Amino acid sequence: MAGSPQQDDYPHAGAPRRRVLAAAALAPMLAGASAPARAMAAGTAGGKNGRLVKPVPTAVSGWEAVANVLGRPGDMKRNMMYHTAFPRRDLLVRSRGVIVRPALALGSHVSFVRYADESTMMMGDLVVAESELQPFIDALTEHEIGLTAIHKHLLSQRPDIWWVHVHAHGHHPVTLARGLRAALDRTATPPPLASAPPQPLDLDTAAIDATLGAKGSIDDGIYKSVFVRRETVSDGRRVLPPGLGSTTAFNFQPLGGGYAALSGDCAMIAKEVQDVLAALRRAGAELVELHNHGLTDKPRLFFVHFWLVGDGVRIARALRPAVAATNVAPAG
Predict the structure, then answer these.
(1) Which of 228, 203, 202 is nearest to 214 (CA)?
(2) Taking CA atoms, which of 12, 48, 118, 267 is between 20 and 30 Å from 314?
(3) Tens-digit pLDDT profile for residues 47-100
(4) Is the pLDDT reported for residue 181 higher than 70?
(5) Cβ atoms within 10 Å, residue 6
């Protein structure tokens, strides 16, 4: 609608105070000084004539300054998402009697995406202990990084932990990275470790792949099967790269003898939700959370987190109807 606030400025779209802050943040840059470590709202929220703005391919080398601020290297996903992981290896978490490996459900991560209008979107999902949650939120707010969800991935976990979806958009990716780093510094998120070579898993991964119709991958001892929505998903006026904030993921943690603990997440549109929830319960899954990841996504996406323990191949077979009930394709 004409005159409505721009829909993809986070966290407070169109607020006059934000415009003043953005102008104040730009002043030192125009005078030749370095920009403060604050995430500025983008000056233009979308393409001309209301058209969607598309992401553009980038390379790891183009994100070196962001990596330096975050203090660890990242990698590229689908040539468009600069992805950095912050696994909470410092937390010894138990859920339903299972010691949860970081890659199963404690894998904080954030992605940066460059757009055709030369702006950058930052989106991620970060794990924080309950004692860290409020200072973490305060730091995000101070640096104008939006929160789009605060929720759980696990049942009966000890210690108490939370997952926070973050979203920011601006023309200075290093500013976004500084704001994120300031929030992470209010947590005990540990420094990165060197990657260990993949080890054989006590799971029939070939049968899991065949059953789900997707080729999985090993991440720090966890077998992951990932699907992406087939639709074009946008956030405000920006197209999201496939898989950014819109994946269905099944993470298998081997327990021995072909058994696994599974932490799962299904991405759904509204008309799919009830069929997926029913299919998951028929599969024996315990439902944890039903929520959104974004505020202005289109189509509107819902996510359900769930937990399941059993024979890995039988789990995959039981989950197949939930996959079939959604418009997804293997991530590849």
Answers:
(1) 228
(2) 267
(3) 556 799 999 999 999 999 999 999 999 999 999 999 999 999 999 999 999 999
(4) yes
(5) 17
The residue type at 87: P
The strand pair at 238-239 and 247-256 is best described as unpaired
pLDDT for position 199? 84
CB 66 within 8 A of CB 121: no
| Separation CA 112–CA 76 (nearest Å) | 10
